[in-house]
Amino acid sequence: MSIPTALVRTAPTEHPVLDVLAERWSPRAYDPTTPIDEGKLAAALEAARWTPSANNTQPWRFIVARRGTALHAQVVDSLMGFNQTWAPDAAALVVAVAETATADGTPITHALYDLGQAVAHFSVQAHHDGLHVHQMSGFDPEVVREFADLEPRFTAVTVIAVGEFGDVESLPEVLQQRETAPRVRRPIAETVILSA
Q1: Per-residue model confidence as pLDDT tens digits over 110-156
Q2: Nearest CA to 62 among 163, 164, 165, 154?
Q3: What sign for the dihedral angle of Cα 40, 43, 45, 48?
Q4: Are 45 and 122 in contact (CB under 8 A)?
Q5: pTM of the predicted model, to two decimals?
Q6: Measured between alpha carbons, how far is residue 146 from residues 112, 140, 159, 185 in Å?
Q7: Separation of alpha carbons 104 and 84, rounded Å
Q8: Which of 16, 95, 125, 188 could make an SS bond with 63 (beta carbons 3.0 to 4.6 A apart)?
């Protein structure tokens, strides 16, 4: 089976949405040689910086690890399972960290919500600029805590692979199938639990 080097995977939405949202998807095939475009990475981080947050607390932090650095290798070591088979090829691995309490110990109850928004803004900006993003929960946050020397009030929540699209055929067969499978989502009618 011949797979195109760049896939267009526009979502079959029930209602019209912005192109950047319909066209965004999470590949696992990354170009293992092209370095991260620093301008595009900076723009994605800038988009995350301007994310709305409760009381403007901005309870997010990022660890940015470029491929070929010791930091990138440390992030790769935190990955679990099959994420270690494809994610090291990404030009950068970004760890999204939530600030779950203030310096004086006051809980920040909305930290995960706000961090999720920041990562969404990062992802949309990156996709708009031609980078691909794949978020992973399959990693050990305690490994990140150790190498990043995170205080207890900070928690690593997800690792984000960022870079140029690569060769799908370089992936294990099961991941090639996932990469090219039809995109599906639960219908809106099953997502909205009450509406009046």
Answers
A1: 999 999 999 999 999 999 999 999 999 999 999 999 999 999 999 99
A2: 154
A3: negative
A4: yes
A5: 0.93
A6: 21, 10, 15, 36
A7: 37
A8: 95
Give the span between the Cα atoms of 146 and 15, in whole angstroms: 45
Quick one: tokens of 187? 């219908």
Q: What's the pLDDT score for residue 93?
A: 98
As to burial, measured by CB atoms within 10 angstroms (0-12 exposed, 13-18 middle, 19+ buried), residue 154 is buried
Where are the extended beta strands (E) located within 54-172?
A: 60-66, 92-99, 132-136, 154-163
Mean pLDDT of 29-33: 95
Mean pLDDT of 11-20: 92
| 3-class SS of residue 61 | strand
CB of 95 closer than 8 Å to CB of 156? yes
Helix or strand or coil: residue 174? helix
Q: Cα–Cα distance between 169 and 173 in angstroms, integer? A: 8
Is pLDDT of 8 > 80? no
The structure tokens 């969404």 sit at 120
For residues 22 and 31, what is the distance between their CA atoms, to the nearest angstrom? 23
Name residue, tokens 């070929």.
68
